[in-house]
Amino acid sequence: MWSDPSAGRSASLAAPPSSSAQAASGPTPGTSDPGPSSSSSSGPPKKPLVKLQRFGACFAKEAVDLNELRELLWSGVPDEADPSVRAKAWQLMLGYLPVHVERQVTGLSKKRREYRELVKDYFERSPEMRSDNENQILRQIRVDIPRTNPGFKFFGDAVMHGIMERTLFIWALRNPASGYVQGINDLITPFLVVFLASYLNKRDEDLHELEISEVPSEVLEHIEADAYWCLSKMLADIQDHYTFGQPGIQRMVLRLKEIVKRIDEALYDHLTNNGLEFLQFSFRWMNCFLMREFPMRCVIRLWDTYIAEQASGFSNFHVYVCAVFLVYWAPQLKMMDFQQMMLFMQKFPTEQWRPQQIETLLAEAYVLKSLFHSSPKHLS
Amino acid sequence: MAGQDEYDHLYKIILVGDATVGKTHLLSRYIKGTLPKAPTATIGVEFATRTVPLAVGGTVKAQIWDTAGQERYRAITSAHYRRAVGALLVYDVTKAQTFQNCTKWLEDLRNNAEPDIVVMVVGNKVDLVEKDPSLRQVPFEQAQAWAQSKSLMFYESSAVTSFNVKHIFEDLLQEIYTQRTKVKSDRYNDNSTQGGMQLRHNPPQRQAGCCT
Ligand SMILES: Nc1nc2c(ncn2[C@@H]2O[C@H](COP(=O)(O)OP(=O)(O)OP(=O)(O)O)[C@@H](O)[C@H]2O)c(=O)[nH]1
Ligand SMILES: [Mg+2]
């Protein structure tokens, strides 16, 4: 997974990715849609409408072709799409929603029943039966939940707190190697937002002021179960990010360091000469998958691609995204000293970013990864 | 930029202690004078600086690193202790466990920071026990005795009322300064730097309420 780029390629990487200038000047139609397959990167720029039709056709088949869906989702669900498209694509891609259309309804209700059983077994037991460890996990979850994504009003609502408390607690007990780790409360939020948007038929950007009391309780029950299962799938292969010593994250930080050294040595030297350590700024990028660095609309776009990459290890790809993100700021960073850089990196000026800028990052990260990996056909 | 960024001493200080004892709130209160607008659990480290004038003239610049409190992060957090000369070891006066864990935090500090690191123990959230004394789980005397037995400084504080917030940071800075100057002057036998070099030093208040 962490294979080194072959030595012969270093020459082509000596210069920073040429497209970083392009990224600075905003989204460029046509380059924002590389797709993991060779056919989509060479064709003419796709119109959102065409893409929407392709999603529709993909869902309309008797059995959804996950390879086709992966390719579509990788390059993002268009803004124009019905909010249910993204929810469905994510759930299919994560293996939660059955690919066979006639099994979808029963499949979902089975999973939701199963989740209700989990709630009974793990959560609704009498509190006296809980071990010290379980109580400690619950305490930690309870103090973190009110400190979750303040950008959406409903994350401050007691009903939503209940949903998060149950899902995170059950996830922690069923994954004892890691248990609950701060930041996992962030990772469930894109699922909650996207599934809410789907059920309410609203755009995620219109949910900021949503009152939970407007949402029927049956819908909330479904969202809770769906978010639980999807979070479980998303985190299934990255357990060692959250186990003792967080080896998975330490590996990613090291890898990021290597990649940046290769693609922008001047920046790398500037950082290290100023005494900046990669762990200092990139730990959070890894722990929360850049969620803390972008507004939710951008995180959701990022997750289209990450969910498409999930089966092949999205954390591997994530490191390239981080590298491109860091190098994107190289012109500013190179003008700063240690302290200025630390303060700048704590709060990158990304509040106004649109999903198109994420697409540019993703496109560059894709190119970069292909250069580093001997085989660009990384999707089996 | 350069003009306002002059200082005579640069000290790295770290904020450590269990999750949710209020480290980030204390830092925000000290640096910005307000509580965090959008509070979230700290992941990794957060960084802030403040330049503090010395009563004797000159300035100390504090480079303050706010760390994540959860147990799982400790292996990684301790990597940020390197070269720290001061630490605020924070617990929550309403949670006995957070005080008991101070022993572990101190051990981490001893193992990973500078050997002569100056440590200040801080019992935060005293505003809560002001309102309801039955909430107190860590008696003032007990924490003070423990700190004394380990030769650590000690205060109680509240990020919410600002009680002692300035003191915990600036008395720590002052102590670091005093110790460093003393060591230096001992080493070089330089009498000119001895004595009289003190930050403005108001006696700490034990009772909250007078300052908000
Ligand atoms: N009453 C009271 N509450 C406080 C005080 N300081 C912090 N809090 C509350 O305690 C909670 C945690 O505060 P933080 O500053 O985020 O705690 P932290 O130590 O930085 O926690 P981690 O980042 O998870 O390690 C928040 O809900 C604050 O509102 C205080 O002085 N008094
Ligand atoms: Mg904090």
UniProtKB/TrEMBL annotation, chain A:
The residues covered by the Rab-GAP TBC domain are 80-310
Q: Which PROSITE patterns match?
A: TBC_RABGAP
Signal peptide positions are: none
Name the domain of life this protein comes from: Eukaryota
Q: Where is the composition biased (Low complexity)?
A: 1-44
Q: Residue ranges of region Disordered?
A: 1-47
Its organism's taxonomic lineage begins at:
Eukaryota, Sar, Alveolata, Colpodellida, Vitrellaceae
GO MF annotations, alphabetized: GTPase activator activity
One family from Pfam that matches here is RabGAP-TBC
Q: What is the protein name given in its UniProt record? A: Rab-GAP TBC domain-containing protein
What SUPFAM superfamilies does the record point to?
Ypt/Rab-GAP domain of gyp1p
From TrEMBL, chain B:
Any one GO CC term of the record: membrane
* Location, primary (coarse class): membrane
InterPro entries of this UniProt entry?
P-loop_NTPase, Rab_GTPases_membrane_traffic, Small_GTP-bd, Small_GTPase
Please give one Gene Ontology molecular function term for this protein. GTP binding
Q: What kind of membrane protein is this, topologically?
A: Lipid-anchor
The UniProt keywords, alphabetically, are: GTP-binding, Lipoprotein, Membrane, Nucleotide-binding, Prenylation
Q: Where is this region: Disordered?
A: 184-212
Q: Where in the cell is it found?
A: Membrane
* Family label: Belongs to the small GTPase superfamily. Rab family.
**UniProt-recorded name of the protein:** Uncharacterized protein
